[in-house]
Automatic annotation (TrEMBL):
SUPFAM superfamilies: Aromatic compound dioxygenase. This is Protocatechuate 3,4-dioxygenase subunit alpha. PANTHER family: DIOXYGENASE, PUTATIVE (AFU_ORTHOLOGUE AFUA_2G02910)-RELATED, PROTOCATECHUATE 3,4-DIOXYGENASE ALPHA CHAIN. The gene is pcaG. Keywords: Dioxygenase, Oxidoreductase. It comes from Sinomonas terrae. Belongs to the intradiol ring-cleavage dioxygenase family.
Amino acid sequence: MPASEQLTPTPGQTVGPFFGYALPFEKGGELVPPGSPNSVKLHGTVYDGNGNPIPDALVEIWQADSNGNIPDETGSLVRDGYTFTGWGRTPVGNTGKYVFSTVNPGPTEPGKAPFFAVAVFARGLMNRLFTRAYLPEDTEALENDALLSSLEPARRKTLIAERLADGSLHWDIRLQGEDETVFLDFHAEG
């Protein structure tokens, strides 16, 4: 076929991912401005099945505000420095590291364990992966959480972030292998 008649390859026919085009946006990891009152850093590394950092993944979070309210504000793609939307997306760096500037989510109901809902987009994945990152402090709420209590202790720990001495939350995401993060399966019933 002459070059003038060739069709443009679709993403499924080319090497990807193409996250650098249109998906990341300015200040995507800043749910609140860094250093603002009550801000906290959620950070970690995305690893592949061999334990190597993945340099081309995207991490998304959704969360309640510090009072446990689910935000319904618009403006997630254009950060104004004042509006908390509860949503962020950030690419990992060349070393697989991601960083969000946010607030500690509050429990959405009394006695519930606060968490970040997380989605991971990465090379080799046909669909994004869903998981959670829980705050480590309320051990009673963690013990009573329906998802966590359905898991063996070794698997449960993959969903609980570590509070560091500086107050930040460290949570690594392992796509496969030893200490693989627990991922959730969402499918339509019907």
